[in-house]
Amino acid sequence: MPKIEEILEGCRRGNASAQRALYEALAYRLLGVCLRYCPSRAEAEDALQNTFVKIFTRLDQYTGQGPFEAWARRIAVTTSLTAYHRHRQRGQQVEAEEAESVPCPEPTALDQLSAAELVALLNTLPPGYRTVLNLYAIEGYTHAEISELLGISEGTSKSQLFRARRLLEERLLATDQIAQS
Length: 181
Known about the structure:
Layout: H1 4-12, H2 16-37, H3 41-57, H4 68-89, H5 115-122, H6 127-138, H7 143-150, H8 154-180
Helix pairs in contact: 1-2, 2-3, 2-4, 3-4, 6-8, 7-8
């Protein structure tokens, strides 16, 4: 298997087999990034394709500082957030107002959930909550960066993170209670 530097050099020359190798090396992980932000799998797949178009057309902007995959992930995040904003502008985002009144239960046994169950649980969050949670907890963005990326205030970012965590705790508690009965 060629090294990433060799694949990137081939991509810079427009070599189709190098582009395919890069796609095959990163597509699965980048699709996971896109799925965390896009409201549907179809939109995530579109965001993934747009991500690779941007990667191939902007490859000259990659300076070699830091891992290439981190650079590609950042493109996937911003491309997915663009899809998130388009979805939001269409008025299809539904916020769960009732989440504000959810009581904060005792911690649950999170480690009992499988990865698939955890992803399914995260996908039940309202899109705004899920997006802020992903950006903060998974991607490592600060609230200031999130507010800039999403066009919201830092306070809104903090509030949505808090509410996302509360809602997850509530749903984990419900899952725990179902498992115990």
